[in-house]
Amino acid sequence: MHSKPATLGQRNSAAPAAARGKAEAILAAAEQAFLGGGFGAASMDAIARAAGVSKATVYAHFAGKEELFGAVVADQSQRRFGGFSAEALDPGDIARSLLTIAVRFLDLILSPEAIALNRIIIGEVTRFPALGQVFWEAGPARTRVQIETFLRRAAAIGSLDVPDPRLAAEQFLALARGEIHQRCLLRLDVASGPEALHAAAESAVATFLRAFAAQA
Amino acid sequence: MHSKPATLGQRNSAAPAAARGKAEAILAAAEQAFLGGGFGAASMDAIARAAGVSKATVYAHFAGKEELFGAVVADQSQRRFGGFSAEALDPGDIARSLLTIAVRFLDLILSPEAIALNRIIIGEVTRFPALGQVFWEAGPARTRVQIETFLRRAAAIGSLDVPDPRLAAEQFLALARGEIHQRCLLRLDVASGPEALHAAAESAVATFLRAFAAQA
DNA sequence: GTCTATACAGTGATAGAC
DNA sequence: GTCTATCACTGTATAGAC
Hints:
Chain A has ten helices and no strands. Chain A has two domains: 19-62, Arc Repressor Mutant, subunit A (Orthogonal Bundle); 79-212, Tetracycline Repressor, domain 2. Chain A is mostly helical. The interface between A and B is large, with 45 and 45 residues.
């Protein structure tokens, strides 16, 4: 997945085993370009230059600017959000576990890279309708399922009183997102520090427990 | 504000009193163009054509594409969100009032025009950092204050038990927004019907009241 | 496959006549 | 102020040599 050992069957003319490397270099350069300034601001010329190849080589690997853009979005979506999990948490210590989830979640969606990705997808989804689906499946849908599963486990052992775990999971995420996510998307909170992140997570957990904590 | 009576002091050469009308026509055409396909996809040529004027006339009224874009965003932001108010509601009938607020709020932010505006601002805020602030002040900030005020009134007469009205207002909006707003931004729910809107509002109110309803 | 060089289309913006 | 015609520039995409 990362890089082949440089010993391959073909070594014809110029760069034998570096073909995969070039494609990766192009993708990496494209990611930086697209995430940095959006679809319109990025130029194929600049991407080729940054990747250390010629423009014609870029077009040899990707059919055009749009396909390259799609490849970047799909790659980033799956790479960013693939690692989120709530399996290892203890449904017994509900407050602590929810706080952990909220912090992880905010840490994920407020990272500059995730914000940039989210921003660019929202901005260009009119031109590329497929991107919304790709992002949703890889990100929010996956995350919601993880939390829903955790809430079901907590409800099963009596830690929580949730009539509708699916809805409760959505609402927990909505509370955690709060307004800080929107503010980051709008570039109003340039650098949301760890303290703001923690405060947002604690507020969300507090209100969620006010609503759904099991009666003692 | 809408249109002058067509009798003005000047009637020199070509279109005497239509100057204001032309500026408005340009702004209207620009709104449609920008909101439809974003900043990059819109061209000054197409805007001029749609407004029924020449490109040079557009540049006579607006310094350039960026200034025209800013004018569109500022105009739309204030026009869309200016009417939101929660003053006339009864803090005694808390469930009903909150539901009304939530429905109004969702109706506002899920309208195709508001979604298009929100989308374009998020997408272009990297290039135009000022837009985020303009939108925030006109929209989310205003709305939150309205609701915070209502919650304070409700808390004063004992309908609610809110330790932090500002935070509670944020959380109420976050619950109402839920995931449907994100889905609309991502173009996954092409047309969120009134029934989905109502359901989202009711879920938000129910959970909010579970957390903050005064004990009977 | 990869490079250099170039054709081509479309854009924002302007000069000058009326 | 308004228009027609045009400029300079940028970015996509390809042709041909290696």
